[in-house]
Amino acid sequence: MTLRMAAGWSQKTLRLQKQSGLNAQLSGMSLTGLAAGPIIGFFANSRTILKFKNELALEHPNYACEQVKKAIELNCFAILLVDDYHNVYAKKVPTKLITSTATQMDSCLLDIHPTIPAVPHPQQAPLHRPVRITI
Predict the structure, then answer these.
(1) pLDDT at 26
(2) Number of continuous H segments (helices) and E segments (strands) in the chain
């Protein structure tokens, strides 16, 4: 009820309305359901949601850099996971042999814990064992 009144008083939509609409869209809500959202005031118009989604994508690299800088400044514990193995599932079988020009797909997850101090870096011993290769 609060969201509807807020949308009725102003043409601007609340961030919660945009996030709720994006969540509904990504969860598979039909176009009919998405069209009813602005009427009941639960979430924003589908164009507003698309604009919000694009803004999030454009802002994300800067946001990620800021978070990493904060973690370094606070000297807190951070975990970085990088994975380059993907299973891609599709409902339809591709009609072409090559469906993408991508040569590699990666996933990257950074988890920052501001309340946990960082693990000290050992200065006396190397982190990795050197491997000699003779050609």
Answers:
(1) 85
(2) 4, 2
